[in-house]
Design brief:
The chain is of the alpha/beta class and 185 residues long. It has helices spanning 17-26, 66-75, 88-109, 133-142, 160-172; strands spanning 5-11, 40-42, 53-56, 78-84, 115-120, 146-151. The protein starts with a strand and ends in a 13-residue tail after the last helix. It binds guanosine-5'-triphosphate and magnesium ion (MG).
Length: 185
Amino acid sequence: MKKEVRILLLGDADVGKTSLILSLVSEEFPQHVPLRAEEITIPADVTPEGVPTHIVDYSAREYFGEEFLVKEMQRAHVFCLVYGVDDEKSLESTRSYWLPKIREINDGDNLSRPVILVGNKDDLIMDLEESPLESVLPLMNEYPEIETCVECSAKRLKNISELFYYAQKAVLHPTAPLYSPDMGK
Ligand code: GTP
Ligand code: MG
């Protein structure tokens, strides 16, 4: 079993990556967030699996260069790939940009770093609306790297600790890729 877990958040600008990290850390929704959160380390004794966990932010607005992104991706054990449930374009670019990129990096290293697909800003859609999860299922089929998908809200502190726990679990207890239409529900 790995002695530590390194989680990297990826996704388009404005989907709430930094807000998710700061919400986890402070247990409240930050009104103002920097572009990129400092790397945080959760000590072993407060993680459910007892393994120190590093959480690393990436900002789509700050230009680090392609090489930097690739290096961070290679250092990570698992990706939380975030889109905004109110932002169809950000979901589309998980398909057109992020997932192919993740596959390229994984293939290059002959590793299968898992992906947690995160639909943030869940508070912005009403309960009665059709869940965008419908559009996510074909993606999960196409990319078995996606270990699970989760809808959350940094604003309402909904499913925040869960999503980081899923990421830890995906590294520490990898499962064979298995497609199930009930996944993530
Ligand atoms: P980049 O650093 O530009 O890549 O963006 P980011 O993914 O880090 O997004 P950030 O955390 O800066 O959030 C972008 C905006 O969305 C901010 O105005 C946040 O307050 C808002 N936001 C983040 N999470 C939520 C949420 O769960 N619900 C709502 N309603 N707004 C949110
Ligand atoms: Mg940010």
